[in-house]
Amino acid sequence: MRSSIQDRISFLRSFLANPRQVGAVLPTSRRAVRDLLDPADLSGARTVVEFGAGTGVCTREILKRLGPDARLLAFELDRSLARLVSEELGSDPRLRVINDSAENVTLYLEDEPADVIVSALPFTTLPAELRRSVLGAAHRALAPGGIFLVLQYSPLIRAELEALFGGVRFRFSPLNVPPAFLFACEKVPR
Ligand SMILES: C[S@@+](CC[C@H](N)C(=O)[O-])C[C@H]1O[C@@H](n2cnc3c(N)ncnc32)[C@H](O)[C@@H]1O
């Protein structure tokens, strides 16, 4: 089993190679991960998707909260980070680590929409076109009533989330480097 120091070094290496794609120098703190996930009923979810698994800090906590028959699709674009998460957590049959961009999520869902999508993608440093494409894909991938949980290091994404999703709740999680802005967005059934 890898230590959290090894994970931090791997994360930092990926940040130095691709700063705008990785968007942070450290993985999210355990406290901020818990704050991020708390608004969703993960124990009752069948299909959960994660965007930007990094070293797997959210992945691990999602798996702890998921039921035995649920599935988790974890997207990670950085090949070395995707491999790291697969090696560490891939023996869990509920998890599929996907080394592809989050914007392709609907290709992998096999007609069963997601109940919850969790994202720590750095939307403010990603190209605008990619950001819009990922947000649109998240909205299409969610079941009516589903929840999109978003962690950011700035509140700038709020207006865009409110334009797409019906109800957006906002919280601040100070125990993270840097402090995190958390959004819980509900796809309002039509
Ligand atoms: C801020 S880090 C968060 C990592 C981890 N979830 C955490 O909380 O520590 C963002 C991650 O998203 C990944 N990423 C960026 N763009 C992506 C995309 N289009 N699809 C999938 N992953 C992406 C980066 O490689 C990076 O690992």
From TrEMBL:
GO terms for molecular function: rRNA (adenine-N6,N6-)-dimethyltransferase activity. Keywords: Methyltransferase, S-adenosyl-L-methionine, Transferase. Pfam families: Methyltransf_25. The keyword S-adenosyl-L-methionine applies. InterPro entries: Methyltransf_25, rRNA_Ade_methylase_Trfase_N, SAM-dependent_MTases_sf. It comes from the Bacteria. Residues 32-176 form the Ribosomal RNA adenine methylase transferase N-terminal domain. CDD domains: AdoMet_MTases. The keyword Nucleotidyltransferase does not apply. This is Methyltransferase domain-containing protein. The lineage of its organism: Bacteria, Bacillati, Actinomycetota, Rubrobacteria, Rubrobacterales.
